[in-house]
Design goal:
The complex is a heterodimer of chains A (603) and B (521). Chain A contains 16 helices and 19 strands. By secondary structure, chain A is an alpha+beta fold. Chain A has a 5-stranded antiparallel β-sheet with strand order 1-17-16-15-2, with no helix packed on it. A 4-stranded antiparallel β-sheet of chain A has the order 3-4-5-6, with no helix packed on it. Chain A has a 4-stranded antiparallel β-sheet with strand order 7-8-9-10, with no helix packed on it. In chain A, strand 4 and strand 5 form a beta hairpin. Chain B folds into 3 domains: 58 residues; 117 residues; 252 residues, MetI-like (MetI-like fold), CATH 1.10.3720.10. Chain B contains 15 helices and 13 strands. Chain B is globular and about 90 Å long. The two termini of chain B are 49 Å apart.
Chain lengths: 603, 521
């Protein structure tokens, strides 16, 4: 008999309780820690992308003693040119130097005279006038002129407050209007382009504003008293006011990015019309970086759409057949097989798609297309053939084993289509389907295209859709299906009229999960497309998706730079999209399960 | 009435109509595609190691070429007439400029399989497909009777010397050199180093003794030092059994050696090692945390609305693209924590980063995070299958909650946890996208585990089978040459992953059976 009041037993009891407390605490701490860590992903991505949209700040601060002007307000002209201008008494006019593409290569000097710009070519001994171009209304006067970094954009300001960007035309001495920042307003007094960037400060009669070449005005405020001296090495504007030097710190690290520049066509340098482009520039180069997310979003959705186009019919057909027709034993074998298919790594599927399937399809395009297009017909024909079989044979091979019956026919069809491919191409398309497509439909052909991605990624997505759809269909309470069949419905009718309506939400959630996987799949898209950020719906052209773009560009991006943060933003979009899609699918599935329980209970 | 008519429609099985055939067809097609993929991988991956026969082809114009047949293709000529062309792997890259030849089938006059042609694998420049003529020793022509036998004996000798030299370099010279480089003034060590170096010189000279004079199909003769050769065989003279032995040897070399010739030849041992080590580290990290989180969610946390939401969120994280985890790993682990660690502990080696760049540790952590939802979900499922009576009985007998969890619940959930961990490993072994951001390398011949303190180098970059597939397949100069290796690597990866998944499936099956028995009791 244990003496419960003995101190030893009581001590042990207390120790057990303490241990229980400690263990619970440990489990609680670890559990919450893990869950918080996992959920931190979203928080991190938001934090990394957030600074893109913080508003720029321009603030005056006392200048450090001894700070010097590193960049003057306007780039100095060559000495000979300056002297020539003084000689011609043109040195007080607003002016700017620009670079242009051939055939008007080299530098030009632009001088503003009244409402007109004069273009002086600098290729000869002395500057010569190439053109005089009216760029503002006749009653206005150009007050300031500047070229942005790279020298391919000319910003023109006038006393009516108009502020516009022009680009030298590639094949004529003229100018092309690119962007109007504002039509009218307070008269503009001066323009100061920031060193090595496409931003510029504008001083008008009311104050100071900061503009970015694509995004437009990013900041507006009071101008300090006094006059500017120039930019220091850190990009701050030194400002002199009666012997006291101030520094105007300009903090606008991501001024070129706004929702507008990310998603709408932008007038990039070197393009005649506004474009949707993704083309990041390497750090320190003078090329204009083009951060348009639309082509990437398009590529992501295009790849997913073509994948689902293949995966949805195949996966749902397989799920329907498995849930309604397959004998139980066979089903228990086939489900794990398809689960194994889900485990195939994307890199292997991508490799097969990119290096084997893509060249193969390129060679057998006609046969491949015919193969896919006529596949359903072949299945139906093989099915029809089965019904013509003697009844004894049919009993040996019941409908549950129809897949087995179809396999040799499908294999035969594949062989036939590939064998007939050159012949088909010769008869229907003059021996060259790709040329025919190009000539008659205007479709270009990339070896690694959306068709290949659709096939490969569709293959990868089939098992996820199949597993969930099959679960939903076979989870429908048996009483419903049995009731319908007892009333004389065939299995297909039962499926169509009873099971599908009951399992509809589950199938919807299966498709959603598949879409989520297709959107986020990286390696297949990376390997099976050319990764060109095109915006075309053609199945025979490539694309670049968010995920592939991250894999390619993020290792090279400088942490904290605009490029890095835009990539983080695209990762955030990917995260939010898949998370939302999965949550929706999960909620739908939960409701469905509850409904099944109620239906099952009502038996 | 309508039902009746449908059911009795002539010909179709029980009036099912044509639709079931489409459904059956999609199932059959999915399985066919899977089978085709696996067969392709297995065939091409394993076939590469089989010594293919060498064909001596004489063309219409009298020119000859020797090579191994790769495949045939039908192409369109510019005139529009179809043309069958056959691709031969001819080797001899340094002699002929290219290791591949497309030959129009129509222009082949004769082809034969002469027994004396040999395939010689070299350290550099790829394979030679040549006819051996004679042996040379120190530049002097030998006339030993059976040329091939004496050649293989001499090649074996060179290989034995090479093994000795490499062992000497690795085991004696490298440690001594490190010892001396660390600033130790040690006359004895210096003497031993000099002695070892002299011995390496001797071995080197002994290896350079022999050379083989060969003739290519184009009639060019050259003398190849045996020192440059890795292996040599005469496929046409081999019996099937010998070929099988050669196949096994090639397979073993593939599995046990490092890559050569910019990853387009040699083996994948560092990649296997890197993958396994990374996955092991990952499972060490993910198992305790995943299990604890699942126990917390299922057994400890109040089962309210909030827990329900957290559960959904964790489940959904399994569906978040892996590249997003890679982005997180890069931003938080590599640039965040790694950068900070460098500032604190490795400031003297900055600006070249130590932990502030991708490495083994960060890759394992990222993949652990990626697979955490898998473990949590699987373990929770296992916990949910344990009948409540088991817990209640334990509590009724006076156990505290910790005792109940440790003695009753966790042992019963063990197979579920194992399933979760195996699934996590299978997923992690196949993920490449996040690794590209957090630490995988094209070529890292130094494995992250060696004899130098601290033995396990968590900051080193490593090679990975999946990335090897991507890199060799897409970034190597001669894709045609690399393709067989890519197939073999992909097959290896798929094999590992399938075995892991099968284990998980069997384990889960076993688990379900056991719990079904428990319930029915």
């Amino acid at each position: 008999m244990i003496d419960y009041s003995s101190p030893a037993v009581r001590r042990r009891q207390r120790w057990r309780l303490v241990r229980d407390r400690l263990a619970t605490l440990l489990i609680g701490a670890c559990g919450t820690g893990v869950i918080v860590a996992v959920l931190a992903i979203g928080v991190f991505l938001v934090m990394a992308a957030w600074p893109l949209f913080s508003s720029p700040r321009v603030a005056a601060e006392p200048a450090a003693p001894g700070v010097e002007v590193a960049y003057p307000l306007a780039a100095p002209l060559p000495a000979g040119l300056e002297a020539w201008l003084q000689e011609q008494r043109l040195d007080r006019l607003p002016r700017a130097l620009s670079q242009a593409q051939p055939p008007f290569a080299g530098e030009s000097l632009w001088l503003a005279e009244g409402h007109r710009l004069t273009r002086l070519a600098l290729d000869g001994e002395a500057p010569r006038v190439v053109a005089r171009l009216p760029v503002v209304a006749a009653e206005q006067r150009i007050t300031a002129l500047a070229t942005l970094a790279g020298g391919r954009s000319l910003v023109v300001a006038d006393d009516g407050g108009g502020l516009r960007r022009w680009a030298p035309e590639p094949d004529s001495p003229g100018l092309r209007p690119v962007k109007t920042y504002r039509e009218r307003g307070p008269a503009i007094q001066a323009l100061w382009p920031l060193p090595e960037s496409r931003r510029f400060l504008v001083r008008d009669t009311t104050g100071l504003s900061l503009y970015e070449s694509l995004a437009g005005r990013r900041w507006q405020g009071e101008a300090p008293a006094g006059e500017p001296l120039g930019f220091d090495a850190g990009g701050g504007l030194l400002w002199q006011d009666e012997g006291r030097v101030q520094r105007l710190a300009i903090e606008a690290p991501h001024a070129e990015v706004s929702w507008r520049t990310l998603w709408l066509p932008q007038p990039y340098e070197g393009h005649a019309a506004p474009q949707q482009r993704w083309q990041s520039a390497s750090e320190g180069s003078l090329d204009e970086p083009k951060y348009g997310l639309a082509p990437l979003a398009w590529g992501t959705l295009k790849a997913a759409a073509y994948a689902l186009l293949l995966a949805i019919p195949l996966a749902l057909g397989a799920a329907v057949f498995s849930a309604c027709y397959l004998p139980r034993r066979l089903r228990e074998r086939i489900k794990p097989t398809l689960e194994l298919m889900e485990a195939l790594p994307g890199v292997v599927i991508g490799f097969i798609a990119g290096l084997v399937l893509a060249p193969f399809v390129e060679r057998h395009l006609a046969g491949g297309l015919a193969l896919i297009a006529l596949l359903p017909l072949v299945m139906l024909l093989a099915g029809g053939l089965w019904t013509r079989l003697p009844a004894a044979w049919r009993r040996c091979l019941p409908l549950g084993w129809a897949g087995l019956w179809l396999m040799p026919w499908l294999a035969l069809w594949v062989a036939l289509a590939l064998w007939a491919s050159p012949w088909l191409e010769a008869v229907l398309f003059d021996g060259d389907l790709r040329g025919w497509l190009e000539a008659s439909l205007g479709l270009g052909y990339d070896q690694r295209n959306a068709l290949i991605v659709g096939l490969a990624m569709g293959f990868a997505v089939i098992p996820s859709i199949f597993a969930l759809a099959e679960d939903a269909l076979s989870g429908v309470p048996a009483s419903l299906g049995e009731g319908a069949q007892a009333l004389g419905a065939t299995r297909w009718q039962t499926l169509w009229k009873v099971l599908l309506p009951a399992a509809g939400p589950g199938i919807f959630s299966a498709v959603m999960i598949g879409a989520g996987r297709a959107v986020g799949e990286t390696m297949i898209v990376l390997m099976a497309t050319g990764n060109t950020a095109l915006m075309s719906a053609s199945p025979l052209e490539g694309m670049r998706s968010f995920a592939a773009n991250l894999a390619i560009e993020l290792p090279e991006a400088v942490p904290g730079a605009t490029h890095y943060r835009v990539l983080m933003l695209s990762a955030l979009l990917l995260f939010l999209f898949t998370f939302a899609v999965n949550t929706l699918a999960e909620l739908v599935r939960r409701r469905l399960r509850r409904r099944y329980r109620q239906l099952g209970a009502g038996r | 009435m309508r039902r009746w008519r449908v059911a009795s429609r002539a010909g179709l099985p029980r009036g099912e109509g044509p639709w079931p055939w489409l459904a059956a067809g999609s199932l059959a097609l999915s399985l066919l595609m899977l089978a085709a993929l696996l067969l392709l991988l297995a065939g091409r991956g394993l076939g590469h190691f089989w010594p293919a026969p060498v064909e001596l082809v004489t063309l219409d114009d009298g020119r000859q070429l020797a090579g191994q047949r790769v495949r045939e293709e039908r192409r369109q000529t510019l005139q529009g007439s179809p043309l069958r062309e056959r691709l031969y792997r001819t080797g001899n890259r340094d002699l002929e400029g290219d290791a591949w030849r497309w030959v129009p089938v129509a222009s082949i006059a004769t082809h034969e399989h002469p027994a004396d042609w040999a395939v010689i694998e070299r350290q550099r420049w790829g394979e030679l497909i040549v006819r051996p003529l004679a042996l040379e020793e120190n530049g002097r022509r030998l006339t030993e009777a059976p040329l091939w036998e004496s050649f293989t004996a001499r090649l074996a000798r060179v290989q034995a010397l090479r093994v000795e030299r490499d062992a000497l370099r690795r085991q004696v010279i490298a440690p001594l050199a490190r010892h001396l480089a660390a600033g130790h003034e040690d006359a004895e060590a210096q003497a031993r180093l000099a002695e070892a170096r002299a011995r390496v010189g001797e071995l080197q000279a002994a290896m350079a003794r022999d050379a083989l004079v060969v003739e290519s199909a184009a009639g060019e003769r050259l003398s190849v030092p045996l020192e440059e050769m890795v292996a040599a065989w005469r496929p046409n003279a081999m019996s099937p059994l010998q070929k099988l032995a050669a196949w096994g040897a090639n397979l073993w070399h593939f599995l046990s050696e490092g890559p050569r010739a910019a990853n387009t030849a040699g083996g994948v041992w560092p990649a296997i090692f890197g993958t396994v080590l990374m996955v092991l580290l990952m499972s060490v990290l993910v198992t305790p945390f995943g299990v604890l989180a699942a126990v917390y969610l299922h057994e400890v946390a109040p089962q309210g609305r909030l827990t329900g939401w957290v559960r959904i969120a964790v489940r959904n994280l399994a569906g978040v693209p892996s590249i997003v985890y890679g982005v997180f790993g890069l931003g938080v682990f590599v640039y965040g924590i790694g950068g900070r660690l460098d500032e604190w502990f490795f400031a003297d080696s900055l600006p070249s980063p130590t932990f502030g760049t991708g490495g083994l540790l960060w890759a394992s952590l990222t993949l652990a995070l990626l697979t955490l939802p898998v473990v949590i979900v699987a373990t929770e499922e296992g916990l949910a299958r344990i009948p409540a009576q088991q817990r209640e009985a334990a509590l009724a007998l006076g156990a505290t909650r910790a005792e109940m969890l440790r003695r009753v619940v966790l042992p019963m959930a063990l197979p579920a946890m194992l399933t979760g961990v195996i699934l996590a490993i299978a997923r992690a072994a196949g993920e490449v996208a996040p690794l590209m951001l957090v630490g995988v390398a094209k070529l890292a011949p130094q494995v992250p585990l060696d004899g130098d303190f601290p033995y396990l180098h968590l900051e080193r970059k490593f090679m990975h089978l999946g990335y090897h597939v991507f890199d060799v397949g897409f970034h190597s100069g001669d894709v045609e040459a690399a393709l067989p290796l890519v197939y073999a690597t992909a097959l290896l990866l798929v094999g590992v992953i399938l075995v892991l998944n099968l284990t998980a499936i069997l384990l889960r099956h076993h688990l379900r059976m056991r719990h079904a028995r428990l319930r029915s009791r």
